[in-house]
Amino acid sequence: MRILGIESSCDETAAAVVDDAGCVLSSVVASQLATHGKYGGVVPELASREHLRAIVPVVREALQRAGMELPDLAAIAATVGPGLVGSLLVGLTYAKSLSFVSGVPLIAVNHIEGHIHAVIMESRRAGTPVEFPALALVVSGGHTHLFEVREGFAYRLLGKTRDDAAGEAFDKVAKLLGYGYPGGPVIDRLAPYGNPRAVPFTFARMKGNALDFSFSGLKTAVLRWVQARDMAEEIAVRRALLRENPAPSAGQWLAVTPPATRDLLASFQHAVITELLVRAQASADRIDARSVIVSGGVACNSGLRAAAQGAAITRPVYFPTPGLSTDNAAMIAAAAFPKLERGEFAGLDIKADASLTLA
Ligand code: KG4
Ligand code: ZN
Questions:
Q1: SS3 readout for the chain
Q2: Does the C-beta of 296 come closer than 6 Å to ligand 1?
Q3: Which pLDDT score is estimated for 173?
Q4: Distance (Å) from CA 345 to ligand 1 centroid
């Protein structure tokens, strides 16, 4: 049994074919980085336009690479939310029209559930399945959430960010310092060259739910650190580099990153990782989790991976492979299989929901 997944919630147009053994037969992702990079973030109007341009060829390529035609599919799954409404509409409407013309049933998938299923699918395929109850930490540009995941895929929200998402904090700090968008991958590559204890950022104590996150204080602390120093010139040098070359190498970035800035980046990344993993470990303890899932774009972060697989989390930790960490459609198809089993199909009147929640 195979499902075609379609994802267009933010700035990637993606399609993939996955089978019920968790084998990814094809996964095509058209990134819009070149479009949004120069604006330092995703521009919603441009995103929808780019999705419109890409959706037909991306879906066609995913089907071709998998050697499939529409009638070979058990279902067509599309992201219904959360995300940018104009972006979601493109993928969902195209999925509806494919379902209408082919008679293949439509399944609506929550983007966050997709991130969690990327890991569940890969762990099963590797022969080391995630054990339940599991604690899922979903960390991306749009979300920073902790969920309890029980057998049968029942979800309970344990904590979430009260302000910025972790990926958003990476992106804003990188933009402030002249590293462009997205910020996570650049900071990840530069952080190992600095001292993570050089700038003592304080850990946010939360009133109310101690499993909630907050990144705005950290972002403001970085801003103050920058304002207290004369950094205009080095920031201008980096912006100039970015204008010449939209994707500088790690070596090129290092050459325009003085030691104090390397320390700042390392300390910032260390603070984000601490914030994420202290609350993940507390959540895992609270629900007595048998495993921990970390997923979403920020799950690519090598410092986060090393810390989670080291002493910070005292349970088996599962990360997706990098291609399944950032937005993709294989995770959407993966999340659709349990719904196919339960006969949870969507009508053609289903609407995109920009603020859809999982629990
Ligand atoms: O899951 P994703 O592709 O899209 C959303 O659903 O938001 O995540 C994108 C986010 C961006 O904020 C990006 O800066 C962050 O993931 N990211 C990283 C890394 N790679 C991507 N953050 C930290 N370290 C990385 N290596
Ligand atoms: Zn995502």
A1: CEEEEEECCCCEEEEEEEECCCCEEEEEEEECHHHHHHHCCCCHHHHHHHHHHHHHHHHHHHHHHHCCCHHHCCEEEEEEECCCHHHHHHHHHHHHHHHHHHCCCEEEEEHHHHHHHHHHHHHHHCCCCCCCCEEEEEECCCCEEEEEEECCCEEEEEEEECCCCHHHHHHHHHHHCCCCCCHHHHHHHHHHHCCCCCCCCCCCCCCCCCCCECCHHHHHHHHHHHHCCCCHHHHHHHHHHHHHCCCCCHHHHHHCCCHHHHHHHHHHHHHHHHHHHHHHHHHHHHHCCCEEEEECHHHHCHHHHHHHHCCCCCCCEECCCHHHCCCCCHHHHHHHHHHHHHCCCECCCCCCCCCCCCC
A2: yes
A3: 97
A4: 30
**Alpha carbon 218 to chain centroid distance?**
20
Residue nearest to atom 8 of ligand 1 (CA): 297
* Residue with CA at minimum distance from ligand 1 atom 16: 297
Q: What is the pTM of this model?
A: 0.95
Q: Is the CB of 300 under 6 A from ligand 1?
A: yes
Place of tokens 């209408």: 100
pLDDT, tens digit, 9 for 90 and up, residues 324-337: 999 999 999 999 99
271-303 confidence digits (pLDDT tens): 999 999 999 999 999 999 999 999 999 999 999
- Full set of structural domains in the chain with CATH: 2-118+324-342 (3.30.420.40), 132-315 (3.30.420.40)
